[in-house]
Write a structure and sequence with these properties.
Elements (H helix, E strand, L loop, with lengths): L5 E4 L2 E4 L16 H13 L1 H10 L2 H26 L11 H24 L2
Antiparallel strand pairs: 1-2
């Protein structure tokens, strides 16, 4: 068991606790899904948020959720586009119709990810 050390600042003893960062995730930019997850756990799962924050695992959790959500959204978009016979990349025909279909597919894919990963 490790011993907690303290240093004195003025009239107060301050603990010398240091949270170690995961160097592999240091440069990762937390995107849309990670930020949505952060806001959700801050507002609705305060105990879980505090636990992650105190253990130093909050950033790793958000990065994992963000990566997994991006991966699943991309896979779902590809699956839905194949089912509906819509090319994933614009093929030169009616651009407004293609954009409308792809936005619809993306919205459906995100709704699934929101209910399975972000807001649980």
């Amino acid at each position: 068991m490790s011993k907690i050390t303290y240093h004195k600042e003025g009239d107060y003893l301050i603990s010398d606790l240091i949270i170690e960062e995961n160097k592999a995730n240091k440069d990762y930019h937390i995107g849309k899904y990670g930020n949505l997850r952060l806001n959700f756990i801050k507002q609705h799962k305060r105990g879980f948020y505090t636990e992650l924050q105190m253990s130093g695992k909050l950033r790793d959790h958000l990065i994992d959720v963000d990566k997994q959500a991006n991966k699943e959204v991309a896979e779902l978009i590809k699956e839905f586009a194949e089912i509906e016979n819509i090319p994933i990349y614009f093929d030169g025909r009616d651009p407004l119709e293609w954009v409308g279909h792809m936005n619809n597919i993306k919205d459906r894919a995100e709704e699934i990810v929101f209910s399975e990963l972000i807001y649980v």
